[in-house]
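Case study: VIT1/CCC1 transporter family protein.
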Amino acid sequence: MPTPNRESLLNDHHPDAVHKRLAAPVKASTLPDAVLGAIDGCVTTFAVVSGAFGAGFSPQVALVLGFANLIADGFSMAVSNYEAGQAQLAQIASTERIERQHIDLVPEGEREEIRQLFHAKGFEGELLEQVVETICREPDRWVATMLQEEHGLSSAGLNPLRAALVTFSAFLLVGALPLLPYTIPSITITTQFLASLGLACGIFLAIGMLKSAVYGLPAWRSGIRTLSMGTAAAGLAFATGSLAQSLLAG
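Here is what the predicted structure looks like once written out:
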């Protein structure tokens, strides 16, 4: 990630630019959802391919199992991500109701919580009391402050449906790639597996490096780490398939 120069930073921090940026709605990054879906999609399908190859299944069986798992697991992951987001929103709504009840019933107690929260941030004396008075003057601001400062909760940018769609799309698009060699009937099953292995390794490496590039982290370290986790999952699936085939054949 390139380092911005001082002039561009000064422009970005001009009062008008700051006001415009802070007034814009907060949008949560979809990159974590995309990375989650892409990695899990690739692991899922290549694990099926590895298990099928280890068990000695035909390419047709590997392809059918791979696509079946791709759709089913992708949908399951998207639903899980959606439900997790909805649960987070429900938690925020429940906590907000509780805080509003507390403000109605014991306003001085809630005011004292605000006082202690901001005292811990370094505010003291008259300035502290001004901060408390300003926050507690407006109920919505008061509740929002309690949610953020006391409970660490915020719904800013949270969109369960968007997260689910991004996860599902990344899962399908990336997860389908290790299956592509199995759509070519003119090559041997070993070649199909090795080609799928190469694609999966390239995907794991690329995802890790892309993630690190976005966040300005060492690219190769992240890429190798993601590659290691992906190949470990595939190796486990291959070993399981081989073991199952040996036990059943014996």
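For the exam, be able to explain this: The chain is about 80% helix and 0% strand.
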